[in-house]
Amino acid sequence: MFDTLVESSGDARDSHNLVQRTNNAPPDVLVCVAPTLTAELAAVLSAWGGAPPCAILLITPPLAIDATLAARAAELGVHHWQCVPDGADAEVVASAIASGAAFAQARQHQDATLRRALARAHAQLDERRCVDRAKGVLMSARGLDENEAFGLLRGTAMNVNLRLGEVSRSVIEATQWADAMNRAGQLRMLSQRLVRVVAQRLLKLDTRAAADVAAQSTLRVRDNLGMLARQCAGTSAQPALEEATRCWEALAAALAPARVDLETLARIDALASQLLQAAEQLTQALQQASGRRALHIVNLCGRQRMRAQRIAKTSLVDALLRTGSATPATAMLDEFEAAQRELEQTPLRSPDIRQALAAIGDEWLRLLGGLRAAETADGRRALVHASETMLERLDTLTNAYEHSLQVILG
Q1: Torsion 260-265-270-274 (CA) sign
Q2: Among residues of the chain, what percentage have pLDDT more than 90?
């Protein structure tokens, strides 16, 4: 026996709720009785996008069915088209429906089987691509060969009782979030670095090098914002990125004039502080959107880059504006040292991380030496040099954390 639903495309009231009724309780076969494949019936069938939830049998009077009409019926998901003469008695109609329904149901079953097989093939291909991408991430980040990377993925999947494809997708996503966190953290640092080089030029300290750093920093901000626009699109972090972008545009406009005075420096510093705050909110939004606690270490290390630049900037700006002591507040120094102790105590301790931490400790002492002599030109040069070297060391450390297995595997 076949469950049938007879519809006439000539009656709009009959077809009005056809899709909803069929979706709610699909019959074995949906029998559509019509003079031909009318525009109204085609509009109803098109709601299923060529994959209706049951077999579709179209009953029409005998007519010439050309290739175009037949192709359109197949595209709409019609599984069989049966012609029944007008005026045929009930027995003939019932026989035609029974035979046509059997054919339509067999074809619908075959179509469903092929769709499932195609979906499985696509899923397997997507999984293979994910695995290959994840292997590439691990090979690049940890210096593994292909077999070692695959073994690490497979072992992790077994340990956490997940499919290899799921672990691979997690690796790819974690890498993307970590990169976004790193880039957002760089915006904090660059906001302070750009003010520092303006102050450096006003103090006539290595002005050519300062100009190069300013150009490189501006390019780095724009590159990071461009990448973050793609990474944050459609996520909860997008509003925070839009605010950071707005703050950068305001700062970039203030930095544009070739010559600046002390009043302009103060305004640039205020705008940079706004960018710093917006970038901090962006990093927090990214960490929350990622749902990965392991990214905290990337954020913490990235913030150290900003602190080192801010310390140097504050010393130089205060020397120009005479807003206070030429030495940054003790709290600023204490924050850097407290965060550094936290980094040294983290269980993420690969050889490259230990080496980077030791180099940062040495450079920190040089930066403090420059601060103590910041009333002299030589002391300020030493401070600028130490802040740039510190940035290189902290970039190396942040990248090491970003590419650590604990962060990548979550």
Answers
A1: positive
A2: 47
User: What are the C-alpha distances in Å from 122 to residues 117, 126, 127, 162, 283?
Assistant: 9, 6, 8, 19, 35
Query: May I ask the CATH class of domain 4-118?
Result: alpha beta
3-state SS, one letter per residue, for the chain: CCCEEEEECCCHHHHHCHHHHHHHCCCCEEEEECCCCCHHHHHHHHHHCCCCCCEEEEEECCCCCCHHHHHHHHHHCCCEEEECCCCCCHHHHHHHHHHHHHHHHHHHHHHHHHHHHHHHHHHHHHHHHHHHHHHHHHHHHHCCCHHHHHHHHHHHHHHHCCCHHHHHHHHHHHHHHHHHHHHHHHHHHHHHHHHHHHHHHHCCCCHHHHHHHHHHHHHHHHHHHHHHHHHHCCCCCHHHHHHHHHHHHHHHHHHCCCCCCHHHHHHHHHHHHHHHHHHHHHHHHHHHHHCCHHHHHHHHHHHHHHHHHHHHHHHHHHHHHCCCCCCCCHHHHHHHHHHHHHHHHCCCCCHHHHHHHHHHHHHHHHHHHHHHCCCCHHHHHHHHHHHHHHHHHHHHHHHHHHCCHHHHHC
Q: Quick one: average pLDDT of 22-32?
A: 87
**Exposed e or buried b per residue across 267-299, where buried means at least 16 C-beta atoms within 10 angstroms of its C-beta:** ebbebbbbbbebbbbbbebbbebbebebbebbb
Distance CA 393, CA 305 (A): 9
Q: Under a CB-based contact definition with an 8 Å cutoff, are residues 277 and 250 in contact?
A: no
Neighbour-count burial of 170, counting CB atoms closer than 10 A to its CB (0-12 exposed, 13-18 middle, 19+ buried): buried
Q: Supply 209's token pair.
A: 């090098």
CA distance 395 to 49: 51
Distance between CA atoms of residues 65 and 37, nearest Å: 10
Q: pTM (2 decimals)?
A: 0.71
> pLDDT digit string (tens) for 301-311?
999 999 999 99
Mean pLDDT of the chain: 87
Residue 270 Cα to chain centre, angstroms: 31
Q: Return d(Cα 136, Cα 151) in angstroms, integer.
A: 13
